[in-house]
Task: structure prediction
Amino acid sequence: MAMTKERKRAIKEFFIMNLGVLLMSVGVYFFKIPNGFSTGGVSGIGTILGNITPWITPATWIAGINVFMLLLGFMVLGKTTGIKTVYCSLMFSALTWVFEFICPLTAPLSDQPFLELIYAIILTAIGSAMMFNCAASSGGTDIVALILKKYSNLDVGKALLCTDFVIAASSFAVFGIETGLFSLLGLFAKAFLVDGVIENLNSCKYFVVITTKRDEVSDYITKTLHHGATVHKAEGEFTHEERYMVHTVCKRIEAIKLRRYIKEIDPHSFIIITTSSEIIGRGFRNV
Result:
């Protein structure tokens, strides 16, 4: 029995969420916690509190705070986002505990804090963005960011910046000026990187094709790529020859196939391709 589109989408979403959790867990445990980087979030709070209360590990603090924030997420964000966030939050806490057990760290991996900050930013930002793109989060202040996004015009990255600034600033008092400066730098970098990754994940290609092969191009778009197309007549101002303009949008992988097909059937066609950060509508993202 053939797999339905909804099932394929659900499996893909599940894979992306798990990969996002794994990347975030690696970034937090191996790079943020050993260096005391507090770039916000529950991991930042756990890093600070774990240093103040050495008898309670950062992973324990992360799990405890996440429970409270999850309850808030269920009440405000609804059941669907809440369930995904519960799963990602539990996986995040579990992976952090697993890393503590199999690979205990008492010091940073290297003596290059800036290098480790870069890895901490990249891994956690990409992980967060992958979860946000699936309408999920790792819990904690990510939930606050989703709430701010829901009730304001803020992008996810900017909402994270607002919620995590106080946490990052507090690292000055706990870990010193140098670590505090690294933490603030990481916070600002992460905020913009999250939005950039989300836009890249959602980016699509908008085609304007000027061709004499209207039927062939339209049939390929509708029957092979399963997307819609808008067609209208056009006249070249220089040659005064009649052409057709075919407008469509498709995903990046499909764009390569469409461009190749058009050039095969009509080498003299004129193609304009632009990148769109988001397409809302049937076959793409729902409103």
Summary: The chain is about 65% helix and 10% strand. The chain has a mean pLDDT of 79.
